[in-house]
Amino acid sequence: MRGSSDKQLNFFIKGVGVSGGVGIGQIVVIERLTTEICPRRMIKPEEVPAEIQRFESAVKAAAQRLRDIRNSIDQDHPLCDHAYILDTHILLLQDRMFFEGTKAAIASERRNAEWALSDIMMKITSAFDTIEDEYLKERARDIHFIGERVLKLLMGITSRSKVHQLPPNSVIVAHDLSPSDTAQIKKENVFGFAIDMGGKTSHTAIMARSLKIPAVTGLEKVSRLVQTGENIIVDGSTGIVIVNPDPETIFRYRERQEVYRKYQQSLMTFGRLPAVTRDGSRTVRITANIELVDEIEIAASHGAEGIGLFRTEYLFLGRKDLPSEDEQYEVYRLALEHNKPNPVTIRTLDIGGDKISAHLQFSQETNPAMGLRAIRLCLSRTDIFKTQLKAILRAAVHGNCRLLIPMISCLTELIATKEILRQVKEELTEAGMEFEHQVKLGVLVEVPSAVVIADILAREVDFFSIGTNDLIQYALAIDRVNEHVNYLYDTLHPAVLRLIRQVTSAGQARGLQVSMCGEMAGDPVNIPILLGLGIDELSMNSLSIPMVKKLIRSINMDDCAELTRLAFEMQDAAAIHSLLEGWISEHFPKDYFVDQS
C-alpha cells in the first residue's frame, strides 16, 4: 500500500541530520524482521533441553557471523576505527538478561525459543526506554539488532540483507540499520541513509559520519511511506528528506552538494589552527567527546586540543564481572599519554547499577533515569567508586587529567564525593602507590538543581562542564530520542540559554573554567551565543571540530555580545533561531552552516 508520497512531487519529511552533505539517488527500502511474526508455541517439559540447545546454537552462530564480518574489515576501511561496535554486539550476545533470561523463559514458561527471545527483547528495550540519557538509550537498539540476528537463525532465515547487493546511486531507507549491515555496505554505491529511528549518537549516525555518507534519522515512518525505486534527496546537514523531487529541486540540491564537497575539503585546514576570534580577543579550547582510546587519533586529526569528555561506561557494560583497578588504569593511562600535554576529562561511571554487572543485585526501579544512577550509584557502592577513582588517580601521573563527576544535584553529594576522594588518596598512600595528588575536580552540570546552586557548587570545584543533552531534557521535560516529542527539544529555548548563563556567571565569579560537552557545543549556529555567554571550552564530536573552529576564527566578540544581547530579549526559540541563522547566512553566505534553501 502506498504512503502519502504517492505521485506527490517534493514530498518533504523533517528528521535529525546526523551526517552532513547531500545524497541524491534511488530508494532501496530495507525491510525489518518484526518480533510479531515469530512462531509462538508451547513446548512439552521433555522438549526444554533441546529447545535451550537450539537457542544456544543460534547465539553461537550469530557470534561467529559477527566475528567474520569484523575480520573482513580492512585496516584502511573507513569503519576500521568503529569495528569495536561489532565487538560490543558479540559481548551482548552473552548478556545476562539476554542470554540467561531467554533460557530461563524457555525452561520456566515452556515457550519455544523464538517466543521466549522476542519477549526478552521487548522487556530489555522497555527498560531502556525509561533512561533519559540519549547515548545509553540508543544502546537498546543494540539489543534489538543482536536479537533479530538470533531470531533469523532460529527461524531459518538465511538470506542476506539487500545492503550486500545494492545497485549504484542507492539511498537506503529503513526503520533501523544494524552496524553489521552498515559495515558491509559498498560505500561507492550508497549515497545516503534515511532512517525512522535514532539520533546523533546512534550507531547508524556514528558509522554514517565515518563513511561520510549523508544521513537523516528520527524520520519516524519514512520506511512505510516510500517504495524502492523512487527518487530521493537526503540532506544530512539540515535533516531534510525530499521524496520524488522535481527536476528544479534536484538541480538546486546538486549545487548544494558541490558546495558542501568543496567546503569539506577546505575545512580540514582549520582543524589545525587555534580557535581564536577574528579580533584576537578570545581563544576557546576545542576538545572532543570520546568513548574509546581508539577514537583519540581521529580526534587529533580533526584538530581536538584534548578530550573534553571521556566516557567510561563501556568498561562496565556487556560483561559478567566488574573491571579491575589495573584494567581501568591501563585504559586511562593510554588516553592520557596519547593526549599529553593536552587535558583529558574523565567522567566517572554514569549509568545505573542494573547495567553494569551480572552478579550485582539492585532492585527494579519505576523510573531509572531519576533513580540510582551516576554519582548516586557510586555513593551507594563506594567499592566500585573507589576502584575507579584509584585507577584514575594512578593514571593521572601520565598526563593532564581532569576528573568529572556526573549528575550532582546537591552540595551533600559533592561533599561526600570529595570525602571518598580523600579516602582514596589516603589508601593509595598507605599502599605505596604512585598517584597524582592534585587532579582537578569538576561537576557535570546536567540537573536543573545544580544550575540553581551553581554559585554554591563553584566554591568546591575547579571547573564546570555543562552537559546540555540531559540538562535540556530535564529542564524541558522532553525525551529527545522519542520521535513523537523530540521536535520540542531545542537548544535555543530561552530557558536553556538562561540556565547556561547562570552557570557561566557562577563560574566566572569564582574564576572557574566553564566548558560544554553536550551536542549543543558542536552546532555552529549556537557558537556566537556560547562565546557571548563566556564558555571557555567546547567539547564535541570530532568531525564537528574543523567547522566550529572556522566559524570562531571568522567572528568578532563584539558581534557575539550583540547577538547574545538580542537573543535574551526574545521570547521564543524560533525567533532566536531566525536571528542566528539569518546572521550566519548574511555574513557567511558561502559556508554550509545552515539551511539556505
How would you characterize this protein structure?
By secondary structure, this protein is an alpha/beta fold. The protein has 3 domains: 111 residues, Glucose Oxidase, domain 1, CATH 3.50.30; 120 residues, PtsI, HPr-binding domain (Enzyme I, Chain A, domain 2), CATH 1.10.274; 307 residues, TIM Barrel, CATH 3.20.20.60. Helices cover 44% and strands 14% of the residues. The chain has 23 helices and 17 strands. The strands form 2 sheets. Strands 1-8-7-3-4-5-6-2 form an 8-stranded mixed sheet. The protein has an 8-stranded parallel beta barrel with strand order 10-11-12-13-14-15-16-17, surrounded by 4 helices. Helix 14 packs across helix 15.
| Sheet with most strands: strand arrangement | 1-8-7-3-4-5-6-2
Overall geometry comes to: globular
- As a whole number of angstroms, the C-alpha radius of gyration is 24 Å
- Given helix and strand content, the structural type is alpha/beta
CATH superfamily of the largest domain: Phosphoenolpyruvate-binding domains
Which percent band covers the strand fraction? 5-15%
Helix content: 40-55%
CATH architecture descriptor text of the largest domain: Alpha-Beta Barrel
Number of strands: 17
Number of domains as seen in the coordinates: 3
Number of helices: 23
Poorly predicted regions are: none
**Main sheet characteristics:** 8 strands, mixed
Mean pLDDT: 85
CATH class bucket of the largest domain: Alpha Beta
Distance between the amino and carboxyl termini: 32 Å
CATH topology of the largest domain: TIM Barrel
